[in-house]
Amino acid sequence: MKKLLLLCLSLFLFGCGSVKEKEQPANIRYKDIYKLIIDNDKFLDTSMYYDFSVDIVALKDGTYRYYVFIDNPQVAMYDIEVLMIDQDIHTLDMETMSPSIGIYENKEYNMIPYQVNIEDNFVKGLVLSGITTKKDITLKGVIQWKNSNRSITYKEYITTKKHMIKEPEVEETTTPENNSEEKETEKKTNE
Question: Any idea what the CATH number is for the domain that residue 93 is in?
Fold first, then answer.
């Protein structure tokens, strides 16, 4: 009996020591797609299957938020996956994730020309968003989708070619001096 107990205890201890934490399938998928983007050297700046655009907005804290818009599908696109990365970042950093759609969500995204049905995951377009400290950023990424019977997978490597920066709106502050000048002007106008 003691030998059996000792055997069970040793199996338990050795078993616990050798168990490695399994990486989540979504993390593996993210890393695989990230590596595909890094290793690729041919990128498009437009697509014949959808519209693609980028906008960058300056934030008040000195950082910049970029938006990636994918919409106006020209073909039926099912199970869409998108990952966009900063062109200047060549190493994968799981602490600072790049914007993605369809990789981590337990939801599929589909786009079909002129059809929208949110309840059934048919969207008009997709928007990804990220934050950077750089005023000028070049994004590159992959947009992947399947045909209607999910038998063929299409993949396009996309990059930004140009972008626009919108400066944050500055609120005018009223100083006591400006305020008194405005009141005097109002008085003269009313007289």
Answer: 2.60.40
CA distance 3 to 5: 5
Asked whether residue 191 is domain-assigned, the answer is no
Tell me 135's DSSP state. S
Let me know if residue 64 belongs to a domain. yes
Number of domains in the chain: 1
**pTM of this structure:** 0.73
CA gap 5, 8 in Å, rounded:
5
CA proximity to 79, closest of 154, 141, 25, 27: 154
Residue 76 phi/psi, 5-degree rounding, is: -70, 125
**CB 66 within 8 Å of CB 105:** no
Residue 91 is predicted with a pLDDT of 75
Degrees to nearest 5, angle at CA 69 with 128 and 33: 50
pLDDT surpasses 50 at 190: no
Q: What is the largest CA-CA distance in the chain?
A: 109
- Tens digit of each residue's pLDDT (9 = 90 or more) over 61-109: 988 899 999 999 999 999 999 999 988 877 777 777 899 999 999 899 9
- Residue 170: its pLDDT value, please? 46
